[in-house]
Amino acid sequence: MIKKILLVSGCSNTDKDFYSELHPDLDTSWPKWPELLAKKLNMDCVNLGKSGAGNEYIYRSLLHYITRNDTSNIGLVIPAWTQCNRKDYQEGNLGRYTNARVDPNGDVFSWARRSLDNFLSFQILCEKYNLPYMHVHMLHLYKNWLDGLKFKDIDPLNLNGFRHVYPGDKEKDNKKLIKIIGDYEDRINIKKFIGWPLSSEYGGFCLQEKYISLFFKTQISKLDSHPNKLGQKKIMEFIYDRLG
Prior knowledge:
The chain is α/β, with parallel strands linked by helices. The protein contains 8 helices and 7 strands. 34% of the residues lie in helices and 13% in strands.
């Protein structure tokens, strides 16, 4: 009997080929949460996760796979959504995806709306093809940007704890972002969205906050907050327990 496929996309917390820029000699080949979850569900895994990816890549990578393959073999689709400030784009004749950590155009409100539209479009896509799905809020949509995004892992400024300065009024803009999210409440199937309503003020959360231990047991090191082997296992268990 042919196993069904667990189809997943996401950023570095999902990437099966993730490596630590801060610890380049570290062997990070441990199983990542999509492979662990597929094993738990007795499925085969197709993991499209890509380090640095934004929400447009996450959505479009799933869109391209679903519309170009036999959907009868897909048993579950999971996008592990990430920060809204990232920009994804394609280059060259083959359409190779790359990304920028901060979109040079727009602002946090336009980025958030774009991501929410990607969430909704993904949902409509799965419903059109009658595919089981579950959204996962992996990295916070906008909190990192409001708090002052850390510099890149390998940037010396990051090691010294420096952050980008948020260019607006954090408290006022946070309330505006919560309202923007609320405008999607009657469109997004919140029963199939782990972490909704995204904002912690109303009970939302992201998995980055859930699995990282205060004692750093589930992350690579004090410098590198990506999940280690135990962290990947904890992510898998957290998602599995909420699949219903």
